[in-house]
Amino acid sequence: MSKSLAELCSLLIEDNYGEFYAHIFATLLSHGRLLALQLALKCHLPLRQIQHGLAVLVQAGLVFHHTTSEGRTSYEANPRNAYDLVRPGRTLELVQKRFGRAASAIVTQLLLLGHAPVGQLKTVNRTANESTTVQDHDIENDRANSTSIVGSPAEDRPDVEIDNALRELCTHGLICRVREAHFRTEADTRQLVEEKVHNSFRSTAKGTKLKEEFAEKVEEAIEKEVDICINFRKSGPENMIPQKRKLDDADNIPNPKRPKLSNGVATNEGFDPTYFVGDDTNFLNDSLVVRLNYARIAVLFRNSRLVSLVTAIYGKSFSRTYEAILHQLEPDLPDPKENISLGPEQERSPGTTSEVDEALLAQDLAHHETYKEHSGSPWRRVNGYVNGIKHQLTPEARSHLEVLCQEPYRFLSRSLEYPDRYVVEYSPLSIHLRNAEIFRIIFARFDKYAVRIIRVLLDKGKLDEKHLQETVLMSAKELRQILAMLQQAGYLELQEVPREAQRQPSRTIYLWFYDPDRVRKMLIENTYKCMARCFQRMKVERDKIRSTIEKSERSDVKGKEEKLLARAELEVLKGWRRKEEWLLGEVGRLDELIFVLRDF
Amino acid sequence: MAPKKSTAPPTPGPSASTAKDLRVLTVNLYNWCRVNYDEEHILSQQDLLAGDVIPNKDPNLLLAATQSLINDRLFRTHDLRSGGIGWKIVSHVSAQKYKDLSSDESLVYSVIESLGRAGAWVKTIKGKLNLHQKNVDQSIKTLLQRGYIKSMSTVKFPQRKMYILAGLQPGEDATGGAWFTDGVLDHELLEELARTLERRISDLSWNQITHPAAESTGLKLGVSQKRKSPDDGFDSTIKDKGKVRRMDTDNAGDELPSSSNAHADVQHRPTSKNQHVSGTLLEKIYVPYPAGYSKYPTLKYLTDFVNDNKIIQSGKITENNISQLLEVMVYDDKITKIKATPDGSAPTMYKARKNPTQIVADWDLAERLRDTTRANDGAMKVARERELRKLGTGGMTEIPCGRCPVFDMCEVGGPVNPGNCEYFEEWFLKIESTQIDQEESLVW
């Protein structure tokens, strides 16, 4: 966990929840795991207040907590979730664009509450307009939009709409279930599970085999503990009744700290299989607690990026085809591994691929025009048949697909096993997007020659100056200048390979190389820092005109600013709003960079 | 010049004839070699004996003859690849030169000669001959005065003193090839040629479709047959317009499903820059060729294109040079390589990243940018326009922090901190002005 990220997380919490919570969070971040009492000491605050603050932070999913068997509860910051606080605006934008207003109303509600039972989300229309606590700019804007619809007079219509939207969000994994394990750190969960497994573990194996078996069991159990999917496709009627009973037990939740399905072992409770059987719209159990799955937002965003890349390269009609393909793949796509990304050292998820069937695609494309407005029903995914007619790809569509399969981008490729299926290999595409982003930054900071050098080195590996010069067609002097600049800025590195043991400089080969991963990490760090600076600058600007802002926020002035404030004061306020807008806009753009560099 | 191991002492053996006979023999041998071999060939002992010039193939006689030729500078010794010693023939003219030279001078001359078009560096000469610097300098001076050698410079080591035979031109390695003029990389030439090539490749790698306004023969090409019921896919509004393939794609017509042409697609973005594009271009629409299209330009085509149109004044250019430039263009993301066959047996083809409309728009923008910066009228607007175009979306490069020189030092409570940052003030002013500009005319 880097310094800039810690700084940024605290600033985000301050922006969203206030200074008090930010203080607690920052203390937890800098000290690591603490008991409440210790935290109170470090924060120089009374225990009562700390406990209150912790409760809020836990509720928001910003702090992990864990109670040992002796009953001592310790707390630890959750920077991953804290970072996600920067994303509600984009989330709403993407969700609304993709799934429509009803879905965005649900997401708004989830953003406000952190996590909520499904039952509460179903009533979202009628209650959404009341809650107005989140300070985020974008949310408020968007919420205003969404409430105007959800508050529409047609009383019974929204219900269906909301149900559809909920269903759609679940299929796409945007909404995921919350389990108790999600409030613990990974290590704690592991420990607990290991204890549990240890107690019940019986095996005849010995030695390493025993260990392996044990580890396997533990992994399995952990997976169950943290499983987030509300996967109703897998569910069968056989486990329906016991599940229901379990859920009924958990129905009324007295303990705010343990609101989750504490018996959450089976994967499929919460889904009412009758949904598939027939008419019941009540397909999700009302008591199932869900939250927003930010990892899926990255999927949505990646898709939109890919689509715009296709538009730039091949044109609009191609990108429409591609969009249809990507949309069809979305629900099946495995989560980009929760790579807790704060440890950038961690392995990134292996290439996620997914296949799309031609017949299905044909069908999708056929309904293309309507596809956008009406977010579709799960039926369209069942098979390639509608009313017994198998859809065929039109020749146009097929030729589009073939163009998309072309080198060097390979937006699509044909499946090796089934000739009529296509595969999207996300991992090289993500790398492409990432590189493009890095090149863009280098181009903006330096010039086209710098990008050329970087691309040559990326392609060819390590090169000495002579070879590099021949490849990039630049004079030695210019080349050296740019190389030095790039090295100073941390984009390039130099390796010395001595030809003799004496390591004489004259007898040494110097090789330039470009390490994309290192540069990526550096850029991520810098981006965090930039974002933090934006927030800090906002604070500075706010402090400059503190008195005016305070005046405008007085209860007797609020709402009547136009009338009660002097012209100069209004000007100042307007200027400040504009600046805030710019800075927040910039934060959003920086977040895009994080998406590309870290989350794709 | 180590003597061959197996040879006898340099004096002629018992069977040697008189000096006069040897003289004749030598001349005969030399003439025979001149007739049968060229100057580049290295003659081995067997070669020389094969000619029946030497009576009885007597090695001692041969040794005497070659030694005499070497003394006359008409033969030059060489190592054979298989080991042992070989000889090269030297013309009388070259041999004559040696005769006038002192021993040091002739040594220096021979080194310079042996290095050929690569040129000889003074230090190399000195190292090879183990002579004193002064002697080498003196010899070089004499040789220069006599016009036997000339000085040259090499691209790789511009500061080195190099010499080459007066009659030779420095080799490609030394001059740097076609891209160098007087030993300096010719940027202008590169840029200009890259532009021309990009335009040419672009013309050949996008399928141009003309609007129905200009052409109404689309129906003849069977577009109408491909029309299906309205729900068969894409926006029928675009499709219903008849499209016609451009002339140069007719050959490829058999390979492409003709319906792919129906997907007209405006590649240029509908932004203000189109206003500056000439009217004819606005009517052209470019779509990608279908997969498997095999008429993208190849290296050979492009080299011929450059040479046939005499784009480069200084004369012909080789495929090697063009390939170098194309490689750079690939790295500049102007073109992409396309392999015609997966195994790479067919030559690589090149496809432009942008279509002609976009390229022209780019040039146009650059042109205007150059103009307006001079006039300082709306410069900011154009700069912003370019910035937006180049940047696409994305942060980091826009805010001051992205290019802050003291970014690493910036810290809350430090000497440089977000509070006292001067760049932000500047930035606020800058956006304000661009926003005003934008509101005036640009709609993004």
Automatic annotation (TrEMBL), chain A:
Gene3D superfamilies: Winged helix-like DNA-binding domain superfamily/Winged helix DNA-binding domain. Keywords: DNA-directed RNA polymerase, Nucleus, Transcription. InterPro entries: POLR3C_WHD, RNA_pol_III_RPC82-rel_HTH, RNA_pol_III_Rpc82_C, RPC3, WH-like_DNA-bd_sf, WH_DNA-bd_sf. Residues 7-66 form the RNA polymerase III subunit RPC82-related helix-turn-helix domain. One of its GO terms (molecular function) is single-stranded DNA binding. One of its GO terms (biological process) is DNA-templated transcription. The keyword Transcription applies. Residues 131-158, 240-265, 333-354 are annotated as: Disordered. Residues 440-513 form the DNA-directed RNA polymerase III subunit RPC3 winged-helix domain. Residues 165-429 form the RNA polymerase III Rpc82 C -terminal domain. One of its GO terms (cellular component) is RNA polymerase III complex. It is found in: Nucleus. Component of the RNA polymerase III (Pol III) complex consisting of 17 subunits. DNA-dependent RNA polymerase catalyzes the transcription of DNA into RNA using the four ribonucleoside triphosphates as substrates. Specific core component of RNA polymerase III which synthesizes small RNAs, such as 5S rRNA and tRNAs. Belongs to the RNA polymerase beta chain family. This is DNA-directed RNA polymerase III subunit RPC3. It comes from Endocarpon pusillum.
TrEMBL record, chain B:
Keywords: DNA-directed RNA polymerase, Nucleus, Transcription. The keyword Lipoprotein does not apply. GO terms for biological process: transcription by RNA polymerase III. Residues 237-249 have a biased composition (Basic and acidic residues). The keyword NADP does not apply. This is DNA-directed RNA polymerase III subunit RPC6. Pfam families: RNA_pol_Rpc34 (PF05158). Residues 217-275 are annotated as: Disordered. It is found in: Nucleus. The lineage of its organism: Eukaryota, Fungi, Dikarya, Ascomycota, Pezizomycotina. InterPro entries: RNA_pol_Rpc34 (IPR007832), RNA_pol_Rpc34-like (IPR016049), WH-like_DNA-bd_sf (IPR036388), WH_DNA-bd_sf (IPR036390). GO terms for cellular component: RNA polymerase III complex. Belongs to the eukaryotic RPC34/RPC39 RNA polymerase subunit family.
